[in-house]
Amino acid sequence: MNVLHADKSSYLGLTQSFSDPQMSEKGFRQSLQDEFGQFISEQEKRFPLTDCLKIDLHCHDHNSDIPDELWGRILRLPETWLKTKKLVKHLQANDCDVITVTNHNNARSCWALQEKNIDVLVAAEFTCYFPEYELYIHILTYGFDQEQEKVLNQKRQNVYEFVQYAAQQDIALIVPHPLYFYTKNDKIDVSLFEKMAVMFARFEVLNGQRDLWQSVLTLNWAQGLTPEKINEYAKKHNLNPADFNVDPSQQKIMTGGSDDHTGLFAGLCGSYLYIPDLEQRLKTQKPSELALEAIKKGNIRPFGTVGENEKLSITLLDYFAQVATKIKDPGLLRILLHRGGTWDKIGCFVLSNALLEMQKNKKTMKFFECVHDALQGKKPNLLVKWKISKDYRFCIEYLERIAESRNQSNEVFVETVTESINELFTFLNQLIKKRVSHALEKNNGFIPSDLTTEELTRKFEMPSQLTALFFGDGKKQDNISNIQVGQILDNLSFPVLISSILAGATLASTRVLYQNRDLLNEFAHYVGKNAHQKRALYLTDTLRDKNGVSNSLSGKLAEVQRSNLPVDFLICHNDVQPESHLHVVRPVATFDIPKYGEQEIRIPDLMEITRIFYKGGYDRIICSTEGPMAVVSLFIKQMFNVPSYFFMHTDWIDFIKSTTNLNQYERDRIRRLIRALYEQYNGIFVLNNDHKDWLTCFEMQLNPQQVKLTAHHAQKRDHSILPITKSSIVKGATESTPILLVACRVSKEKGLFDLPSILTAAKQQLPDLKIVVAGTGPATEELKQALPDATFVGWQNKTQLAQLYLSLDLFIFPSKFDTFGNVILESFTHGMPVLAYNCKGPKDIIEDGINGFLVDNKEQMTNKVLEYFTNPTLQDEMKVQALIRAKQYQAEPIMAEFLTNMGLDLPAGYNQSPLYADTSQKGMSESTLDLKANPTSPLSPINKAATSLTV
Predict the structure, then answer these.
(1) I want to staple 714 with a disulfide (CB 3.0 to 4.6 A). Which of 71, 333, 334, 889 is the partner?
(2) Where is the Glycosyl transferase family domain (predicted)?
């Protein structure tokens, strides 16, 4: 979505921040920190502190009782329950000289303080309507009386009238968080900010609850507003700066505030207000009067630190803890009749019911009370520690650590809470794993390793009646191996609930900050600075494992590392070590499902991956497998509001057809689940044209623009690996013995059980025909019985497999399941032709009769085996053509198109040639041409020991 609809010629500059060598070296986040730190350092030199009043210009208490967020209004939740007295106490504890409270659309707290003869700067944060954009913005407003407050509330329905009235009455205004809006709005364009530049003199560039990126963008924009630009904007939009009490010749005024709603950070961010001869003037005037004078004159310098999402996460955790204990029934009619969409109302109904049910559990309520108390610096009492279950004592330890840190510096507090949340989340997930494992062990007949797709589809059925789900129906349920789901949920309710709250607070805080990411990206281009670097995090459940997907991804990683491409991989693994461009997280839990292969299923630490994504400065996500990492990728997509992509390696519908007895209706269940998953991504990468057509047809109904065709690339031949004798592979073979090779996972869906009849028929004319099977899998023993004369060599590493390609004759690929067939490229790379069925992946790679054969059935496959081994000239030509075809699948053009389709920028000079190179002689190397002209030369595939063609 193009949020800022501006001609690029109107941009102040278009240099991407990541292209700045300094930013590339430091990283996006560090560069922002350095830039903002320099600004704060310069501000500290402006005024002597002895003549300054300290104030938090932006904070809230319980009178901010009507939230801007829709769900909060539907559920009748205030933005905070913080009492005015407690807020004032926090502000004074942090050495604020002047007190103000900026509640939404009212100054009730300020009037109440005045009635108690407490000096206060009267203020409020009014929500004003920009009619042409259908947009609400906030405006901090200072120094009005009760009659003016009434008028301001009337005028706020039109921002122009509001600001003009404030100017006429000499009421000071500040625009807080100018780049943060509570709703997405396609009507926002550059003109909004041009008008704001004409209408306002003061902008909040330091907001304690917003992120650093927004703050730096606002700062650079405001500092770049020269008198010439403001006058140009005024003329363009027919606005008179004088009507808004704005002097274009004066620099914009920068302010700071905590935007605190809970008291946790009140007074830790704010502004110093400069009043010359302050000590003398305080003898005759109130601090609030002097503060208002300094605000109007613009004698302000912000102080404090801008967090990332940590402060907001802590605030939301405290808020959620209070919601859990304080929420009241909002009423069904209120929910149904309130403004908002159907899904918003359903979500609020479910959430309110869940929370109200949860309030019946005293232990859970006590825990939430302890969370709130700990964040306020109060440790759990001894009675709670004595009563708590042994399984949950670690929770109390973390709460005590948080409470102790509250009395230390703000930095220590934020760091302690953040670390405690992360560690607590990990411990809770380990507890969940322990209880699930225990529950499964208690249920006879359920063995995780025997779980099949068929069992999942047919037997795992939770009751639709909620009471039956959670409390049972008094009958033995025929669900997944007779497990009582309600019993498991009862044991998991507390750890799942708390871990969900922790993850939810983190997700919500970051989502709030980045819900307008498109706006931030476009605004960075508009300003000409601080564009977010374009970098993708690639999640996969398998890498450095023994399977084809792992091999192909390892090839992609190698190319990323070689060319320093803007992609980093992330894998969950116990044994793999981190490398350049490779993050490794350790699993929270692991389990095996042998029927799905030898791939171990690893459950990652969700919070750890989100931290890696955030700190790494990534702005998009790609996932390669439908396992746990798919869930993580969707969580990150929602959390950071980033583009997400999926790389389809496996045809699960074909897999289910080949490995189960599910009927069409049951397979449709799986298809709809897969469709629901793929629909969540901005783009789906596929490896063959058949899958591209399938994903866009009536069965899957994906947008054709969403589906991108890609390929694996051929990895370069290692010339240190040389052929070996056939006799060292197959006992009794000679160099003239015809030998087929098949290398794959040994399982039924790979079509391997077509081989016995193919070999039996072929041996009638080629009695010496042999076959070598490389790989392991669940059908190994069964295949050995079906092919008693075959040579089984087991799993082969890269070197061993290369020796087989170089030493044997023809690769046979009977699979109709594979989406690509990476082994085809591996064969071609070593000059070995391939015989395969004419389906999906193989037919996009193999050129029939040129570098291999494409057939429709077993009889044709038998005939092509005979044709190949009885025609030496054909063998020589196909081996040459196999090398040529491999050369057309080079890494750079394939990766270039792959990155471009994800919106990433390519390194300077990186190959952007077409995906499939021309097969004419024009594009061939000299060695290849020599090979075609003279097949008996030292480069000929006939002379295997001397083969050294670079591919």
Answers:
(1) 889
(2) 731-880
